[in-house]
Amino acid sequence: MIKKVIIILAVLAASAIFAEKAHACTGITLTTTGGATVPARTIEWAGSDIGSQYVIVPRGYVQRSMTPDGDRRGMQFEARYGYVGLAVALPEYVVDGMNEAGLVAGLFYFPNYGGYENYDETKRNATISDFQLVSWILSRFSTVDEVREAIADVHVVAVDKRSSTVHWRVVEPSGKQIVIEIIDGKPVIYDNKIGVLTNSPSFDWHLTNLNNYINLQPGKVESNELGNLSMSSFGGGSGMLGLPGDFTPPSRFVRAAMFQATAPRLESSEATVMQAFHILNNFDIPVGMQFAKGEEIPDVPSATQWTVASDISQRKIYYRTMYNSAVRCIDLGSINFGKVRYQWAPLDEVKKQSVEQIKIKK
What percent of the chain has a predicted confidence (pLDDT) above 90? Predict the structure, then answer.
């Protein structure tokens, strides 16, 4: 009984994290000249440190989903593929990661849109919590078509109704990717040909909204005449005049789409990973702008808690955090998923920005 109470408290505390401010994530997808795919994304939360950690899950590891009653009585699933996940609050809450087959999956906030099923005790063996769907996807599948087929047979529920609804992006090594949204209790799946994802409204709305920015173009706008007045741009990049600069999901979607589309294709996947980090610098959210005047601002460096990029071709995950912008790497190729033990560790062993001192020659 005591163990069950502890589980209930942990689940509710973790779920409540996602019920307040900064439901923001921005995802892009870059491609090398050779066709290698690099999905990357940010995760935002302005309210507090969300306890981020990486999780190593071996082949054959068995998990059971949490249920709204605060226990682990939902669907049981065994890992066909080993994977590395980035989790928040609890090791079970993997919100992004890659498996040994090269499948990448990620959870993005989707507040005030979509709608899960109500929990039905009689269907608990086919029921999974929204914050464990990424773990299920990574542990069981190698292609987006496999995910597309299997998602129809599971019931996705919220562990805590105070938490935000979410939607998901799934990317395979070929570059093919989908977005999954639960609408009126049923999965709705979109082919994500643009490779971008943010938050609410629904994915199809964002694609329609891009038509409002058909005038945007890279480079410098040519000089023009307005009656007797000659006009010329003040500098490079004037073709992007009108690009929205706020932090709302629609504006971030447009910016991400434009930055991604105009980014030059690079030869190596590692260089492309670094390019993804540079692009996503534009989506770091200062923590103060999330709070109205007079509200107490929490003691965290940024609302953007971490940024991750996955080099699918090399099976490597790269990340940096709000505490330390140094890029770190987990090489899935160096892990024997048949023998490694299940484990997790914080993304930051020391929550402090590393600084390299420059030695000046005498």
Answer: 75
Residue 134's CATH number: 3.60.60.10
Averaged confidence pLDDT in the chain: 91
Question: What number of other Cβ atoms are within 10 A of residue 34's Cβ?
Answer: 11
User: Could you give the CA distance from residue 38 to residue 46 in angstroms, rounded to a whole number?
Assistant: 27
Look up the domain containing 207 and give its range: 2-346
Q: 40-79 pLDDT, tens per residue?
A: 999 998 888 889 999 999 999 999 999 988 788 899 999 9
Where is 134: in which H helix or E strand?
Answer: helix 133-140
* pLDDT higher than 70, residue 23: no
Q: Is residue 359 part of a domain?
A: no
Residue 54 · residue 332 · CB < 8 Å: no
Judge whether 9 lies within some domain.
yes
Domains contained in the chain, number: 1
Assigned domain for 358 exists: no
DSSP state of 21: S
The pTM for the full model equals: 0.92
- The closest alpha carbon to 154, from 190, 191, 116, 97, belongs to 116
Q: Which tokens hold the place of 99? A: 């498996």
Calpha distance 199→246 (Å, rounded) = 14
Residue type present at position 245: G
pLDDT tens across 173-182, in order?
999 999 999 9
Cα–Cα distance for residue pair 139/330, rounded to 1 Å:
18
Task: Spell out the residues 6+ positions from residue 359 whose beta carbon is closer than 8 angstroms to its own.
Answer: none
Domain annotation covers residue 357: no
104, 98 Cβ separation under 8 angstroms: yes
User: Which two three-digit tokens encode residue 141?
Assistant: 């599948």
Q: 226 vs 195, which has greater pLDDT?
A: 195
CB atoms within 10 A of CB 249: 22
Task: List b or e across 256-288, with b for residues whose CB sees 16 or more CB atoms inside 10 angstroms.
Answer: bbbbbeebeebeebbebbebbbebbeebbbebe
Lowest-pLDDT choice from 237-241, 304-308, 340-344, 351-355 = 237-241
Is the model's pLDDT at 279 over the cut of 90?
yes
- Residue 207, sorted as left (phi over 0), alpha (psi -120 to 50) or beta, turns out to be alpha
